[in-house]
Sequence to fold (272 residues):
Amino acid sequence: MSVCVVSWTLGMTAADEVIAKVKALGLDGVQYAGDHRDVSAEDLRDRARAAGVKIIAIDPFNAGPADPAKATQAAAIAYYSQVVDFAAQVGSVPVTLQGLSQWTRNCPDHASAMQRLLACCKAVDEYARARGVRTLYEVCNHYEVPLIHTAQQCRTLIAQIGSDNMRMILDSFHMNINEPDPLKTIRDNANFTAIYHISDSGRGGIGSGHIDFRAQLNALRDNGFRGDVAIEPVLEHLTPSHAPSSEVDRRALDEEVRRSAQQWRGYLSHTG
Fold:
């Protein structure tokens, strides 16, 4: 089980900076979150390989339309097809699709929004499969995205897509908000989950809130999880989604990531 980090929380996207930071933090890999148009796929691939860093997913952060009122299905599919091309060049790395829900905000009602999301996911997943790229869908809380807030909703969406190419990302912070019983959610979906995100109930590192991470790890391991984990903390004064901008904050976040990784690895060493 690789212990990784989600790069947006670090506040950097340049390939050399991201890979160097992952190594400095003592982590195994990274979920690369950023704009694919701002970085060379080949550079990211080559730097990661040279450093022995695993890229577990390409996650187009803030990937919604420039003007939500003018969003269209065709534009959403075109944008995400470019992300898939980028992921294929990086090395057939999975692509996250939850950002497609941001392209539905101008739909007149929930039913039409779901219809657009389903059509977009189907089209992008089909294109990704043809390019040898897997797709992932992160279940996010209702304060951050307009659709798909529970694992069951995500499983229904994936069933409607009718593809075995898509898997799920579960996130401890998001589950704490929208899942009545996060441990049951993990038990029911562990073998369908590709990545598990680590951040505590207030979005800090392990131990900053009330989530029982040892119990969540046991639920993952006991129910067939074979994926990677990615630490995704935010400093308390920057919640919910602001990366550090000062050297003081960067050092504080680094320490939070290191401490969480050490804690998680400690749990791993005491589980079967």
User: Anything to note?
Assistant: The CA atoms of residues 28 and 172 lie 20 Å apart. The longest helix spans residues 247-269. The chain is about 45% helix and 15% strand.
